[in-house]
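The authors assume throughout that readers already know how a fold can be written as discrete tokens. In essence, backbone conformation is discretised, so a fold becomes a row of integers matching the chain in length. A single example would do more here than another paragraph of explanation. For illustration, here is how one protein appears when written out as sequence plus structure tokens:

…
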Amino acid sequence: MQEELIKKATQYIANTYTRFPIVITKGEGCWLWDVNGRRYLDLLAGIAVCNLGHAHENVVEGLSAQAKKLFHVSNLFYMEPQIKAAQMLVEHSFGDKVFFCNSGAEANEAAIKLARRYSWNKYGEGRHDIITMENSFHGRTVNTLAATGQKKFGVGFEPLTEGFVHVPFNDINAVRDAITDKTCAVMLELIQAEGGVYVADKNYVTELRELTKAKDILLVLDEVQTGIGRTGAFFAYEHFGITPDIMSLAKALGNGFPVGAMVATDDVMSAFVPGTHASTFGGNPLASSAVIATLNTLIDDDVIKKCAEAGKYLHSCLLEIQKDFPFVVEVRGMGLIWGIELSIDADAIAKEFLQEGIILNCTKGTTLRLVPPLIIKKEEIDIFLETAKRIFERKIG
């Protein structure tokens, strides 16, 4: 049955993804089942999306209750779930206002537009350049491809949008040298997740925030993958002792329901007025109900604290594995986002994990990425660790 479904998929669905050769039909907590009934431990969580695990009862109940009342009316109307979702994000972040959309790329598009519009309002034309980092990833729309600091993603889609300057990550002097009278913002991932799980240096982030303030340049943080508890804090910026002017969110915001958000201060968000930006489905009642249920569960069940504790345990065990296997080059991350860099074929290793019933992925060709649900239990982490040792020992043998 699985082979037949995969054959149909190749016949009818655009070939834009390198997929695992399995058809998933059900999920619960940290586990997934394929169409043949085989169970897998999911350490990818839909690529850092299902932070509460699969089919969490609070999200299911929130969506179900809302679906019985109202799906969609458009943003020509006020909607109580959207108001509540925005209020919760404001109360737990630096921001004052929220713009809702449907994805991380859309949230970053909104952030880019807002940064340029704010500068245009304040300084007039010509101040529109945005500095981003080499090895970054901000999305696959034309604007966000231009912002992304990895040329491979833009090949064949040129010309990309002008006005983006890429500099080395964690290099404050490179940022300082790149600033001109045309610069309106710096855009940064505090952890370059798609780029191989590289964490920003705290001193670098502190100096960057000081520099942007001194130059009256906006600091935009892309927290699409790191936000909503992933790092052991509500947002990754909390670890660095700074606040941005603009922040993009998506992925885990709805625990699997498509929703994105761009959060900003009152002053900055005032650059958006009716007609400057919009989203037909952004913050619709269903999406907003998923946000409310997700955030309430994070808070009420103390999920972020549990994430931090699980992350410390996983990190300590990964460091022990690194000592035992010389081809484990480096372990990087925080909370429950980790990269294990290997000097052997990481993609082949990821496939061996899949054969053993564990789902993770390879990024940048050399790094195994772990972004499990934040509710993962110690026993489930131990299953991964035992499997990793078994696979790695075969490589030595």
The longest helix spans residues 303-324. The chain has a mean pLDDT of 98.
